[in-house]
Amino acid sequence: MRLFSAFTLCALVASFTALNVTAEEKADKPSEVKMFKTGSLSVPAVFKKTKPANFVIEEEFKAGEGEKAARLTMMHASGGVEANIKRWKGQFAGGDPEAQKEEAFDVGNYKVHVVDISGSFAERMGGGPFAGGKVVQRKNHAMVGAIIKSPDGPTYFVKLIGPAETVTANREAMVKMIKAAK
């Protein structure tokens, strides 16, 4: 009986160890997100997949934990590049003027526009950017927003938004992800 128990214990430990390795390996692998009909983004493991906050967001990830967490959201969108950048900037007040910047570059066939904004963020609670709902002012927040425009017209939005400290710490990973779009 002891031989069977020892064998069973060893088998259980081995199975548990294998499950943990698999979970750790999965946590370190990037997530693939589809955009447009044939494109994709490889989301670094630093961003943890989470449930989208509303039906408009197609994919959502987070960086950081608790009150320091920032949201990385992704979705197909419409509207002009400049109109959307203007709308995003209108959601912020104050902030360091030196930190507010825009850049544009090409990634393969895509035209990409990246904007950095910081200050007090007017977050609309419940309903999205065009619906009603309570507005909560989030002080010391930032956003890195990217508009990826496909050659045939549609656009895809990727936004990292949250406490300025977390957004700043994860900006490079987000922009690197955008520059590696397929």
TrEMBL record:
<protein>
    <recommendedName>
        <fullName>Preprotein translocase subunit SecD</fullName>
    </recommendedName>
</protein>
<feature type="signal peptide">
    <location>
        <begin position="1"/>
        <end position="23"/>
    </location>
</feature>
<keyword id="KW-0732">Signal</keyword>
